[in-house]
TrEMBL record, chains A, B:
NCBIfam families: PRK08304.1, PRK12404.1, spore_V_AD. Gene3D superfamilies: Stage V sporulation protein AD (3.40.47.40). InterPro entries: SpoVAD (IPR010894), SpoVAD_sf (IPR038369), Thiolase-like (IPR016039). This is Stage V sporulation protein AD. The lineage of its organism: Bacteria, Bacillati, Bacillota, Clostridia, Eubacteriales. Signal peptide: none annotated. GO terms for molecular function: acyltransferase activity. Pfam families: SpoVAD.
Amino acid sequence: MAEKKIGLHTVKLKNPPSILSTATIVGPKEGQGPLKDYFDIILEDDLFGEKSWEKAESKMLREAVRLAMNKINLTPDKVDYFFAGDLLNQIISSSFAARELGIPFFGLYGACSTLTESMSLAAMMIDGGFADITIAATSSHFSSAERQFRFPLEHGNQRPPTSQWTVTGAGAVILGKEGNGPYVTYITTGRVVDFGITDANNMGAAMAPAAADTILRHLKDTGFNAADYDLIMTGDLAKIGMEIAVDIIKQNGYDISSKFTDAGIEIFDLSTQDVHAGGSGCGCSAAVFAGYLYSQFMSGNLNRIMIVSTGALLSPTSTQQGESIPGIAHAITIERSVGI
Amino acid sequence: MAEKKIGLHTVKLKNPPSILSTATIVGPKEGQGPLKDYFDIILEDDLFGEKSWEKAESKMLREAVRLAMNKINLTPDKVDYFFAGDLLNQIISSSFAARELGIPFFGLYGACSTLTESMSLAAMMIDGGFADITIAATSSHFSSAERQFRFPLEHGNQRPPTSQWTVTGAGAVILGKEGNGPYVTYITTGRVVDFGITDANNMGAAMAPAAADTILRHLKDTGFNAADYDLIMTGDLAKIGMEIAVDIIKQNGYDISSKFTDAGIEIFDLSTQDVHAGGSGCGCSAAVFAGYLYSQFMSGNLNRIMIVSTGALLSPTSTQQGESIPGIAHAITIERSVGI
């Protein structure tokens, strides 16, 4: 059996890569939320000086990567691989950012699971001996997502209470072979799970079974339980999906409710910010992790967490053709120190 | 430096994974082309018994994977990771195939570079010690691609001579830690390169600089030249892009013309099949490699080849917003035997 496999679907990294730097850029609404002090840049205008929201999103992703590199005086030629994806058709935010950066690039599509999808691969490339430094990044933008997946904003359509608000935000995480932590230590890769939800305005419910599947496989594979973690954060099930996930996990013998949160709940104040069930989008768990949670590691408030970014793998075409919404969730464990 | 890195951007696998099995499914037009004897299944109807071309494409991808598994009596529970992507928005062909297979899944978007993008990652996961068996797969479908990227087929639009014909086809490649070859031995990962081409009907020209960039970096990193290869196959530059790539490479001191071909040229008979500059689509290099070239390894006619799948990273939105077309190309070396 492959030396780093434990259990069925989890790998334990042998020489856990260290996070060297992160950066986040968010939109005005996110900059008014409870985590506003943890983002590097808060845009005053979500066009970010560009002529379209799509160009603005690509610029956010590119600038988040540049900022993360600048923080540690890293130049693109020292980076072995860039892993990125986003929600836009043909992941143009990522591709156009990769064009400017010139780093060997693996384009990903995992919908809102992209943060942990990209970090999983970026970490394994280092632990596998293929790279010294890698970057994982992702973005989303409320306005570009709305017009691509739902309606033109000018349409002013009503949003049901189950709907989520796509975060305008980008996060970049730089990983290195050598570093002082926090470290990526375990990876449990998602399977596509579909419980037959067909309502594109209830994506939290569509993704919850996938999140539960991955968390349960992780706990079984590693022998950990909720007590082993300071925090287990999904992203982005929001209010409704979160409750469903906790229930499924409880039915399978694990109670994680005391340690569980969701990036879509953390990034907005649900009582005042009119985001209905909470935030969503690739940029949501990226901004919460690369901004808030990373800072909590650096200030010694966290020792071990699991991030489980969740994606709804629908397209407008698949929905029109009557398909239900498959979900996927990739889990990674991050620890302040290793080798003890 | 990471132990498997050679040169700037190439890795040399330490324990090269073996290809264990491949399978291909193609459409009726591809089944009339010069490689018709090398495909496992040739569809009589490109709807493949489904109600939409998108569903048909997803079924092709899924059935190609199943067929490749059946050939070696492999069940999905023995597969560690599934890497796949396609051209459809939100890669629904791949996601829905992954839903049926239940294998931990990394969704990719590399446009027509997906064969070698997925094989690169699938191979590195094994060599890195994370997996025993992985699957790389991709698909494309003329009819689903036309209506998504260009015009509804009912529109009957004219195609300029530089245009390429999206292959209806899917290919799956199963890689394993143990096997009798051929083996994946070197990987050179693509950077996004953009020479400012804005004509979405001339994608070969848009991708040629990326192909040249990757091939040149590979040759410099490894010290190889054309004589070290039986064949260097891009996919899919087609007639016009191929000439441009050969020229750029020649200007940089390497003459690969005697060993060079392109999957878009191989899969169709350009003189009789009315495909203009040649084939394209993720399924093109996938079908040519997993069908024809794999059989040539098995019958001992090939010893060492390089496959360089090339992707045009445009979207209809980026084109409408005046962006040029960035390209990317991922190269992998495949050898009949290793360790001599």
